[in-house]
Each structure stands twice: as structure tokens, then as C-alpha cells.
Amino acid sequence: MRSVAVRVASEAAEFVRHRRATVDWTVSVRTKSSETDPVTLVDTDCERLVRRRLASLRPGDGVLGEEEGETGSSEVRWVIDPIDGTVNFVYGIPAYAVSVAAQVDGQTVAGAVADVAADRVFSAASGAGATVREANGLQRPLACNPVSDTRLALVATGFAYSTVRRERQAQLVAQLLPRVRDVRRIGSAALDLCGVAEGRVDAQYEHGLGPWDWAAGELIAREAGAVVVLPGADARSPDGRLIAAMAPGIADEFGQLLTEIGAMAPIPG
């Protein structure tokens, strides 16, 4: 299933790269949960491409996608995000990804995240480690940073489109910032999780993600050694539950810090 995830994510990433160069932005963007939450025709077209490829390579498997919901029912469920980081995609900020994961009984067993702009593909399978394939085709194993002090940790996070939740998230960042090295808001949860896996950041946390945002990335981080806190396979954005991934050397300390500032609690909205 890992090879299927890598193949489909890679093909979808190539599709997104080509479409971004040709898309008509005057007719290709609409909104979802709020005026600041965009979805493009490329999102929906890419998800349909992924669904067609999965139907060909894994006939009979169920699929859960961000744009078109859940179809089918089987032991294996594919969870897909056609473009994670749509705002970055719209603005031309090179941090957006295609995420494809296979789950069994709600647990991710294989997954791939394709960094579209950088032409890199992260992947993992349960018990088999995590790797990244670089743009030049070379592949290397991933491992979290050996950081052991939360005060030296670079932390990634993200913010919701709901103004109520954003206010609470801003309060949490204000409490966290004096107690870590720094905070980064990259704009793609899937890439944040892969960042933990390869040591570009030391920890990640965010509230209110859907399973398509984290299904592949959490496995990649976990297989690279990260300690991961998950919201549950069927949690949805309105639940406001936390997902976090932490390099193993700071997992206990950073987890305690999240507890102290109240970040372990859900932020519904």
C-alpha cells in the first residue's frame, strides 16, 4: 500500500504543478467554511484524479476525501487531501502538498505526502520506517532531531478559519512562545508533520484538523521516531481536537508544556 500511496501522490502532485501554471483564478476559487477558507477547481479536480487512480489500483477500497467526503466501505480506507495548504497554493507560496494515506480500523498503515513545489515525496509504512525521495530521485531515511530541551525546540503550528478558535489559538501561542526557541506557521499541516520527521522543526501541534490533514503525515512522523498525539480517526474540524507530534527527546517535557497552557483541551468551533 505504501507503493500505491507514493505513486498516486506523485501523479497528483505533477497534476497540481501543471494546473497551477494554467489555472484561471477569476473563475477557479470559491469558499467553504468561511470567506477565508478557499477551495479551487484544482482541489476538486485533483481529488477526482486520486479517486480514479485508487479505484484502478485498489478496486473496492473505501475513500475519504476532503472535498467529496466518504465513498465505499471496506477494511482499507484511503484518506486523501488533494491540496493541503490551499491558501499557499492560491498565493503562490511554495508550501502545499498532496496527502494520501491507507488506514485499517482507523489506524494509518501506509502513507505519502508529496511536497508539490519542491518535488519531494515523503512516505512511510507501519514498522518499515520513513523516507523522503528528493527531486533528483535520491531517497534517504528520516529521523527526528536529537533535541532534548524544549527551550531549544522549533515548533510548527497552524490556525483555524473560525475567528473564535483563532482567538484561543493566538492565546496559546502567546503562552508558548517565551518557552521555546521559536514558532513557525508554514500553512500545511501535512508538511509540518513531515518537518518533524526530517528535523526541520522539533514539534508540531494544531487544533481542529480533519483526518485528511494528518493521516499520512502522522505516520511519517511516527516512523521517524516522533511521539504523536492523535484526535481519533473520525474527528472532524468542528470538534477542535488536538494533534501533536514531538521529537522523542522533548516529548514528555513538551507534552507537559501543552498541558500547562491548556492546549490539550479541544477548541470547538
UniProtKB/TrEMBL annotation:
Q: Which residues bind Mg(2+)?
A: E66, D81, I83, D84, D213
| Gene3D superfamilies (alphabetical) | 3.40.190.80, Fructose-1,6-Bisphosphatase, subunit A, domain 1 (3.30.540.10)
Q: Could you list this entry's UniProt keywords, alphabetically sorted.
A: Hydrolase, Magnesium, Metal-binding
The reply to whether Hydrolase figures as a keyword in the UniProt entry is yes
Reaction equation(s) it catalyzes: a myo-inositol phosphate + H2O = myo-inositol + phosphate
Does the UniProt entry include the keyword Magnesium?
yes
Under the heading SUPFAM superfamilies, the entry gives:
Carbohydrate phosphatase
Give the EC number(s) listed in the UniProt record. 3.1.3.25
PANTHER family attached to this UniProt entry: INOSITOL MONOPHOSPHATASE (PTHR20854), INOSITOL-1-MONOPHOSPHATASE-RELATED (PTHR20854:SF4)
Q: What's the name of the protein? A: Inositol-1-monophosphatase
Organism for this UniProt entry: Mycobacteroides saopaulense
